[in-house]
Design a protein that fits this description.
Length: 344
């Protein structure tokens, strides 16, 4: 229970940031860049192993943006100019100019490489069809629905290739869902196509947004686990779930990825305890709120470590009653049975 993980992206080390800038100028070959991306991936896998994260991520060291990366690999897209995502973050918003198609597997080789570096499971990381559609310009399909369902078939094929390669956890990120709750039915339909037939554990991550509007249909998303941010809003999302029997597993964001502050371990543990008043321990997967790529390497490491150490503390607390009960000596025949609070 309380298996720790991370949402996906991790910050790139300085040497890789510099190398990617060189590659864009044509001063570094794709092969040389790939070697450095592999080096950074090795470093992040080794770190996650060292601190004891249960389900690892490759850190997406080979990706720039979660949308543009897939648009660059799929057919039917072209690149536009820079568009502001949030804060001072920009991405090159893709344009759908033709029928979308998957020329070849996109993430399989990188997943295989990362998985070869550890005995623990590594998640497969995909961007969902609704989010790719919503964060792209559409100049080809008649409607948003047509574009989304076409993309869902490509994500379905990629997810099944990951499963055939041995991937046990497949995360299909849909951060855009929370910004348009009126289109939740379309997101459910598309995610159903993407996950159809999968036996691996399926996860979707949804970013900050209008969860009050989503909650009535959130449980209908066809995945095993829904990963949400809790820390950024001081765990006010717990109020929405309190008193409900939510049927899905919950990826529980315990540290704020948009803050430089490093949360103390005891604070993180206290917030995990708060969440366990609402969710079952076997339902919860502790992690950061979102991808950590906007933090420095040191900040990301400190936040991940806080999640793991806090979870370890709470796990031990949950195990104590059972351990104490097993350790009690057998009662002698004829002895009186003590009256305890559990019998009141």
């Amino acid at each position: 229970m309380l298996l720790t993980t991370s949402v996906g992206s991790l910050p790139k080390p300085d040497y890789l940031i510099a190398a990617r800038a060189q590659a864009r100028k044509g001063a570094l070959s794709a092969k040389e860049l790939a070697k450095l991306e592999q080096q950074a991936t090795r470093e992040w896998i080794a770190f996650q192993d060292a601190i004891g994260i249960d389900i690892l991520v490759d850190g997406e060291q080979y990706r720039g943006d979660m949308i543009a990366y897939f648009a660059e690999q799929f057919g039917g897209f072209k690149e536009s100019g820079l568009v502001r995502a949030y804060g001072n973050r920009y991405y090159r918003k893709p344009i759908i100019v033709g029928a979308v198609r998957r020329r070849k597997p996109v993430t399989i080789n990188w997943w295989k490489f990362a998985q070869s570096l550890t005995q623990r499971p590594v998640k497969g990381m995909l961007t969902g069809p609704y989010t790719i559609m919503d964060w792209s310009f559409n100049e080809h399909y008649r409607s948003r629905r047509d574009a989304t369902l076409a993309l869902a078939k490509l994500v379905h094929d990629e997810a099944h290739d990951l499963e055939r390669a041995g991937c046990q956890y497949i995360q299909i990120d849909e951060p855009a869902i929370s910004t348009r709750p009126e289109e939740i039915d379309l997101a459910i339909e598309a995610l159903g196509i993407a996950t159809d037939g999968l036996k691996a554990k399926t996860i979707t991550h949804i970013c900050y947004g209008n969860f009050e509007g989503l909650l009535p249909k959130l449980a209908k998303l066809p995945v095993d686990q829904i990963d949400l941010e809790f820390a950024n809003r001081d765990f006010e999302l717990l109020k929405l779930f309190k008193g409900r029997r939510f049927p899905k597993e919950i990826g529980l964001g315990l540290v704020d990825v948009h803050s430089h502050r490093i949360e103390p371990v005891e604070e993180v543990a206290a917030n995990l305890r708060r969440a366990l008043l609402v969710f079952s321990p076997r339902q919860v997967y502790p992690d950061p709120d979102c991808g950590l790529k906007t933090r420095t390497v040191d900040e990301a490491k400190a936040k991940l470590t806080a999640v793991v150490e806090a979870t370890r503390i709470v796990r031990e607390e949950l195990a104590r009653p059972a351990t104490s009960a097993r350790a009690k000596p057998a009662r002698r025949a004829g002895s009186s049975r003590p009256r305890t609070s559990e019998h009141v």
